């Protein structure tokens, strides 16, 4: 054993003690640290300010003008555009429509996507190692296929499918003996236009989120499922108690992205119902914005609608984060839940 001799030189190389209050002393700015921050923080921040923050501030300014879009002349009108907007019955109808889409489409899409993902990854035999169903790769490809097709093509295809005279939907229903659908206008009736739009929306996006959830489920430790199987938990109970908590972050992110897509919903709606549907039953804010800007040439008023849509989107994202935190989300709680699940898995394996 060698003795360690402390000398003034070795003592000087020891870490400096923390300052009062437990805070470490501030490090000196060196050339290496400055270049690091400039490269990995300064440049992305400059790009964000230039292409995201500044255009948004500029949009707020144009929303307070009567700019016509094709001339340099305009007048500053303050909040008149926003006042006019919330007195516009057509815009309020569009706002209600996108709120309905944001409430229904993410919930239905993610529920179906999660069901497909769980069935593919965990729907195998009840005995032996936990594994997916036979031919899982084939089902992943089939479910992902609609997302590969551009949204405008999906909308145009389904517009033909819903055609009252030559559409396949009415053709299949008529062949099945439902003669009342022989010339039924799915997109022309107020009661069925919005449900038809939601169906196309879900059909086009469910495959992508199913593949996303499949990748997330494959990252869950297999011993947790094996411990649950030993304890006698069924497939539904396993999904609720293990799968959902383990992929909570993926579900939350998917819900936000789907909500943003539903609040926009321009491509699907424009392909299926370019005029907003019967009695504006499927009109969205983005459609109303497009019509006001490029058909009525009221770009200032249209920009005000875009600002409101951006605020609604931010409120939706904040609401999802708040609900997630209130229902048990958060990094600390996730870590505690993960530790508890690992302990339960270890105990089940020992038994």
Automatic annotation (TrEMBL):
Main localisation: membrane
Highest taxon of source: Bacteria
Record localization: Cell membrane
SUPFAM superfamilies for the chain: MetI-like
Family: Belongs to the binding-protein-dependent transport system permease family.
Organism: Streptomyces formicae
Protein name: Sugar ABC transporter permease
Membrane-spanning segments: 34-57, 98-123, 144-162, 196-217, 254-273, 299-323
Keyword Transport (UniProt): yes
CDD domains reported in the protein's UniProt record: TM_PBP2 (cd06261)
Biased composition (Low complexity): 1-21
Classification via Pfam families: BPD_transp_1 (PF00528)
Keywords annotated in UniProt: Cell membrane, Membrane, Transmembrane, Transmembrane helix, Transport
Domain ABC transmembrane type-1 intervals: 95-320
InterPro entries according to UniProt: ABC_transporter_permease (IPR051393), MetI-like (IPR000515), MetI-like_sf (IPR035906)
Annotated membrane topology: Multi-pass membrane protein
Family annotation (PROSITE patterns): ABC_TM1
Renumbered residue ranges of the record's region Disordered: 1-25, 329-351
């Amino acid at each position: 054993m060698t003795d360690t001799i402390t000398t003034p030189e070795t003592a000087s190389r020891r870490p400096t003690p923390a300052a009062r209050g437990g805070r470490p002393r501030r490090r000196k700015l060196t050339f290496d640290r400055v270049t690091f921050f400039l490269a990995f923080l300064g440049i992305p921040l400059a790009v964000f300010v230039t292409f995201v923050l500044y255009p948004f501030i500029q949009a707020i300014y144009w929303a307070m003008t009567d700019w016509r879009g094709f001339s340099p002349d305009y007048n500053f009108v303050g909040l008149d555009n926003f006042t006019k907007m919330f007195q516009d019955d057509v815009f309020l109808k569009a706002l209600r429509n996108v709120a309905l889409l944001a409430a229904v489409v993410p919930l239905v899409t993610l529920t179906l996507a999660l069901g497909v993902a769980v069935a593919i990854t965990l729907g195998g035999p009840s005995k032996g190692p936990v594994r997916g169903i036979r031919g899982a790769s084939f089902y992943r490809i089939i479910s992902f296929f609609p997302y590969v097709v551009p949204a405008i093509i999906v909308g145009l295809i389904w517009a033909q499918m819903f055609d009252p005279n030559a559409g396949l939907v009415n053709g299949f229903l008529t062949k099945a003996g439902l003669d009342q659908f022989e010339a039924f206008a799915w997109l022309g009736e107020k009661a069925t236009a919005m449900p038809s739009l939601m169906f196309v929306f879900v059909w086009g996006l469910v495959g992508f989120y199913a593949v996303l959830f499949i990748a997330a489920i494959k990252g869950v430790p297999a011993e947790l499922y094996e411990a649950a199987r030993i304890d006698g938990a069924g497939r539904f109970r396993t999904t609720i108690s293990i799968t959902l908590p383990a992929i909570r972050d993926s579900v939350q992110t998917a819900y936000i992205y789907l909500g943003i897509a539903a609040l926009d919903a321009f491509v699907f709606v424009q392909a299926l119902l370019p005029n907003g549907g019967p009695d504006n039953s499927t009109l969205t804010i983005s459609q109303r914005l497009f019509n006001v800007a490029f058909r009525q040439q009221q770009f200032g008023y249209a920009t005000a609608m875009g600002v409101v849509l951006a605020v609604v989107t931010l409120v939706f994202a904040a609401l999802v984060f708040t609900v997630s935190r209130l229902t048990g989300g958060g990094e600390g709680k996730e870590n505690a839940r993960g530790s508890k699940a690992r302990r339960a898995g270890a105990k089940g394996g020992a038994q």
